[in-house]
TrEMBL record:
GO terms for cellular component: cytosol. GO terms for molecular function: S-(hydroxymethyl)glutathione dehydrogenase [NAD(P)+] activity; zinc ion binding. It comes from the Eukaryota. GO terms for biological process: formaldehyde catabolic process. InterPro entries: ADH-like_N, ADH_Zn_CS, GroES-like_sf. This is Alcohol dehydrogenase-like N-terminal domain-containing protein. Keywords: Metal-binding, Oxidoreductase, Zinc. Residues 40-110 form the Alcohol dehydrogenase-like N-terminal domain. Its cofactor is Zn(2+). PROSITE patterns: ADH_ZINC. Coiled coil: none annotated.
Length: 115
């Protein structure tokens, strides 16, 4: 598209920092992680600010399924779209977004839209 911004990192893996829960109830560890470029219908978001909510803390303390470790907590966040994958037309690079804990589009492969 004409005038469309293209991130220097778009299409490439990036390294960033994350607070990683390695084991249930153990302190979070700040680590550098590799984040792949977005795939088909995926968006990569640069998180500006996040917090831990009750759901995060509950999963962090769980020792059994559905809690899986290691995991990155903090789904209540605000960020900026860094790059988009193929067939993404709802957001563009630079959009400010708020991730959600559960998808609600009704059209994702994990959801079946009932009409």
């Amino acid at each position: 598209m004409e005038g469309e911004k293209v991130s220097v990192e778009a299409g490439k893996p990036i390294v960033c920092k994350a607070a990683v829960a390695r084991e249930a109830g153990e302190p979070l560890v700040i680590e550098e992680i590799m984040v792949a470029p977005p795939g088909h219908q995926e968006v990569r978001v640069r998180i500006i600010c996040t917090t831990l909510c009750h759901s995060d803390v509950t999963f962090w303390k769980m020792k059994d399924y559905p809690a899986v470790f290691p995991r990155i907590l903090g789904h209540e966040a605000i960020g900026v779209v860094e790059s988009v994958g193929e067939d993404v037309d709802e957001v563009v690079e630079g959009d400010v977004v708020i991730p959600v804990f559960l998808p609600e589009c009704g059209e994702c492969r994990l959801q079946i839209k009932k009409e």
